[in-house]
Amino acid sequence: ETEFADILSYFSVTGTPAVRPEPSFEGTAPAGMKIASDKTILGCVLCVPESWRITVSSGAVQAACDDGANVGLSSMTPTATTATECFENLVKGYRSIYGEENVRILTEPGEAETVGSYPAYRFRLEIARADGVFVTEQLMLLHNAVIGGNAYLLTFTAASGVFESHAADFAGITEAFSYK
Fold this sequence. Notes:
This protein is of the alpha+beta class. It has helices at about 5-10, 40, 85-100, 165-175, and strands at about 35, 45-50, 55, 60-65, 70-75, 105, 115, 120-130, 130-140, 150-160. Helix content is about 20%, strand content about 35%. Strand 3 and strand 4 form a beta hairpin. The longest helix has 16 residues, at about 85-100. The chain starts with a helix and ends with a helix.
C-alpha cells in the first residue's frame, strides 16, 4: 500500500497558478458589449459591457465590473404556478440565507414585460449582508411562456450606493438578451 506522502513526493509545484482565460463565443454583440454566454451554455445569449469580467460555471454565468456590480444568469425550473408564487419562493430562499430582517422587498413582480420575445417578471430586493447593503433586481424569464416551463433568472446586483449608476448597463444587458 502506497502512502499519499510517497505519491506526493513525485510532484512539485513551480511557477504561478494559471489564470483561467475568459470564454470566447462566436457571434456579434451590440456595440460596446461582448457575449458572456451563448446557446451552448444555457440555451440563450447574454451580452455584457466589454469591460466586465466573465465567469462561467456549471449552469450559471456571471459577469462583474470593477466596483463589484454584477449580472448573473442561471436556469431554473419553477415549481410555482404563478409569477407571484415563484417570487415568494425566491424571497423565502433569500430570507433563509440572510435572515428575515435582512431582506426587504422594494418592488414585486407586476405585469409581464417582454424580454427576448418571451414574458419576464421583474422585481427588486434590498439585502443586508455582513459586507454591506446590496440591491438585487431579478427577472424571471419564461422561455416556454408558462410557469413550470423552462425559465431563467437574470440577476443584477450592486452595492446600494452604486446600483442606480449601473441602470444603463443593466438595461443594455436586458435589451441584448435573446434565445437565438
